[in-house]
Amino acid sequence: MEEKIALLQKFINESHRIVFFGGAGVSTESGVPDFRSKDGLYNQHDVRFEDYSPEYLLSHDCLVDNPKVFFEYYRQKMDARNVKPNAAHNYLVELERQGKLIGIVTQNIDGLHQKAGSKKVFELHGSTERNYCMRCRKVFEPDAIFDSKEAVPHCDCGGIIRCDVTLYGEGLPVDDVEGAIEAISSADMMIIGGTSLRVYPAASFINYFHGKHLVVINKEHLNCYLRPGQDLEINGKIGEIFSKLK
Ligand code: NAD
């Protein structure tokens, strides 16, 4: 492990345009469950929601056809208002400050990279931090959903207030997708961290990378093509690994 971390440090020292591509595993050390780990959302059994799949509960169809269930699940599982960034988020802030990191491409919706202080963040799946009325487009703080007394939160105009999160069945935000592809395709190093690479199309964006070093950091082994002699996989907790770097 120490040797691998030393090699990661060497790659970082040699690189000038690093892009980070991350997922839910980046926030687990802040206490936010991911989807597919042993204690992730997909493995939590909750009688209130056992008739539905997690994909359905976070889908456009559920929001439209079954809004009470959608908002009950969303309030229960997606409230990140009091969560603090961890060492993984903080190290990426430092890399950006050093002028080495050109962007973070995240599948996360918790806003923790921005809370930590990162500036260039491409959110492929939106954010629970932003919310709007589906009818008049008025913008709301997260409290408007999480603290609402209504089962389905409404705007004064009568429209439903929803999160600006890409639900299953919805398209990805165009500006973030373009920014992500631009950053990945112009990077000389990419660090993939805390993602199972199982959610598409987001996971397919890593194919735009043609730089020198690809590093995968994940708790468990991922089937990701690594080029012998120039790429690296480290299996461990990303916050713990990043806190050993300069
Ligand atoms: P995932 O749950 O499919 O995979 C997470 C991966 O991270 C797993 O392979 C797991 O082994 C690994 N992991 C967990 N903790 C880790 C740690 N401390 N260090 C290193 N690796 C760790 O998540 P995904 O790939 O991001 O895709 C699923 C979807 O989950 C995304 O679309 C995202 O929007 C959504 N999601 C987001 C959040 C969040 O915003 N924090 C939380 C749950 C789910």
Strand ordering within the main sheet: 3-2-1-7-8-9
Return the CATH architecture of the largest domain. Answer: 3-Layer(aba) Sandwich
* Computed CA radius of gyration, to the nearest angstrom: 19 Å
Mean pLDDT: 95
The tally of beta strands, per DSSP, is 9
CATH superfamily of the largest domain: TPP-binding domain
The CATH class of the largest domain is Alpha Beta
According to CATH, what is the topology of the largest domain?
Answer: Rossmann fold
Q: Give the strand content.
A: 15-25%
Q: How many angstroms does the end-to-end distance come to?
A: 16 Å
Quaternary organisation of the protein chains: single chain
Describe the structure.
With 246 residues, the protein is of the alpha/beta class. The protein has two domains: 149 residues, 3-Layer(aba) Sandwich (Rossmann fold), CATH 3.40.50; 83 residues, SIR2/SIRT2 'Small Domain', CATH 3.30.1600.10. The protein is built from nine helices and nine strands. The strands form two sheets. A six-stranded parallel beta sheet has the order 3-2-1-7-8-9, sandwiched between helices. α6 links the parallel β2 and β3. Bound molecules: nicotinamide-adenine-dinucleotide (NAD).
